[in-house]
Amino acid sequence: MIPAAFDYVRAGSADEAIAALATHGDEAKLLAGGHSLIPLMRFRLARPAVVVDIGRLDDLSYIRDGGDHVAIGALTRHRDVETSELVAARAGLLGEVTSHVGDPQVRHRGTLGGAVAHGDPASDIPSALIALGATLVAAGPQGSREISVDDFFSGFLETALADDEMLTEVRIPAADGARWGFEKFNRRAQDWAIVGVSAVVRAGGDVGVGLVNMHSTPVRAAAVEGALAGGASAAEAAELAAEGCEPTEDLNASVEYRQHLARVLTRRALEAAGL
Amino acid sequence: MEISVTINGATHTHDVEPRTLLVHYIRDVVGLTGTNIGCDTSSCGACTIHVNGESVKSCTMFAVQADGEDLLTIEGLADGDTLHPMQESFRQCHALQCGYCTPGMVMAAVSFLEENPNPSDREVRLGLEGNLCRCTGYHNIVKAVLHCAAGGEQ
Fold first, then answer.
1. Which residues of B touch A6 (CB under 8 A)?
2. Averaged over B118-137, what is the pLDDT?
């Protein structure tokens, strides 16, 4: 199907993109790899009046060692995250989760920042960012600010980004020597997760757990993390995985089935992470 | 907006609406109809082409995003009358039934082997997960990709 007509602005720099957003407000959408936005536009579920193309801002495509963190530019493609030796060594969970996004063609075009800024609760990557405790860097007319991943997802397809802000970088606290597990339950290859779980156990023993498609936003399994910190076993803690979540019912799963999946998959992910 | 795109080595310049999807541009404006449209949901991979050497679903790009880029479609794969080794492997292994998914399947497979020249059966299946064959002819498609990876000729 053919998207509704829009005005096309090709940004030559992040500043140009932010200026375009400031001019057009919520009429405008940023276009990075387009693999979240274009499918919505084709069905006219999204009809932005202005599309600001940031896909050529190559200076925002990078993976750098920041010492205590790994810094990844928002326009870094999934394929580059998936195959990065630096990500594998210092933020391995993110590399593995990224390899499960969509399919190879999607990963050739889709970007880390685009997937995160889209704010889809069924997206795999936010669960890894929650488990790893990422910080997101946003740039706007007043400069840059850092947002904790726990404050970033504010509603269904909504984030803490203002209308005139763009995500520029994702920072992952270095997780050298960590073990992790990622469990994605779906019925067909390339489908979205019916439920998914990212779990990471850092070398010091700290545990992070993020859930996919269990709430209106990507969500932290705080009760699981708390139980583990209090000495519970993986199996005991995993029983709390659905606590505080309000999953929806759809064609694939009832609320009760999603809660069941969250408990089972969380246990498996924790066990894969060595607990 | 005027765009200039290299497709199969030839440069094409046209004025397009920004909302024109790349697959519609390739088929309806340039006239290369080997690239098929299957699903409209970025699922089936029938519209797979190469953008700067990598497989991409051309239904999930706007033509304006391809401005200045180097594209390869199924029409540009063979060398004159000599089929590309992947096309030849598909022919030898009977890797097509109705043929609708074939152009996208071949383009995805060529890109996959460039990234992973010696794949296992399992890796081929994962590498082609973005392409659907509604004849469910997957076994021979996987066989063809492995055949091509092994050097083709028998």
1. 18-19
2. 96
Question: Percent of chain B, pLDDT > 90?
Answer: 97
**Which of B18, B45, B65 lies nearest to residue A34, judging by beta carbons?**
B65
Using an 8 Å Cβ cutoff, are B142 and B112 in contact? no
ipTM: 0.96
Give chain A's end-to-end CA distance (angstroms, integer): 48
Specify whether the CB–CB gap between A210 and A129 falls below 8 A.
yes
Domain spanning A181-272, CATH class: alpha beta
Question: Whole-angstrom Cα distance, residue A14 to residue A54?
Answer: 8
CATH number among 3.30.465.10, 3.40.50.2300, 3.40.720.10, 3.10.20.30, domain A58-173: 3.30.465.10
- Chain B residues closer than 8 Å to A79 by CB: 54
Residue A204 contacts residue A184 (beta carbons within 8 Å): no
CATH code for the domain of B41: 3.10.20.30
**Chain A closest CA to B75's CA: distance in Å?**
19
pLDDT, tens digit, for every residue of A10-58?
Answer: 999 999 999 999 999 899 999 999 999 999 999 999 999 999 999 999 9
Q: Is A51 helix (H, G, I), strand (E, B) or coil?
A: strand
**For residues B59 and B116, is the Cβ–Cβ distance under 8 A?**
no
Query: A266: alpha, beta or left, given left = phi > 0 and alpha = psi -120 to 50?
Result: alpha
Mutate to test the interface with A, among B1, B17, B129 (most CBs of A within 10 A): B129
Q: Which of A59, A84, A87, A58 is nearest to A176 (CA)?
A: A87
pLDDT band at B153 (very low <50, low <70, confident <90, very high): low
Residue B138 belongs to what domain range? 85-149
Instruction: Based on the fold, state whether residues B42 and B67 are members of the same structural domain.
Output: yes
Smallest Cβ–Cβ distance between A34 and the set B1, B45, B60 belongs to: B60
Burial of B62 (0-12, 13-18, 19+ CB in 10 A): buried
Full DSSP string of A130-191: HHHT-EEEEEETTEEEEEEHHHHEEETTEES--TT-EEEEEEEE--TT-EEEEEEE-SSTTP
